[in-house]
Amino acid sequence: MSSLSDKQIDLQLEDLAGWQRDGNGITKSYKFNDFIEAISFMNQAAFHAEALEHHPEWHNTYNVVDVRLTTHDTGGITSLDIRLAKRMEHIIQPKHL
User: Are 44 and 91 in contact (CB under 8 A)?
Assistant: First the structure.
């Protein structure tokens, strides 16, 4: 797997509200109503991360979860980072079919 180009990253971030580029990764801070909601999000996201075999760098303080995604093997941002970010967004704002 190779890192995405700057243009590819910019295009992908257009569809990921609140996600920002941070060096060789992308970041977002999620704020929840309380600690239980924050941990619930992390638990759900963990299943997606495990399925992708791609794990986030993240930090939780009470009702806030700070997430950073990067692909260490390539030293940059890959489609795995984008896919995991999209899955996290789906947890927050599920799309109804």
Answer: yes
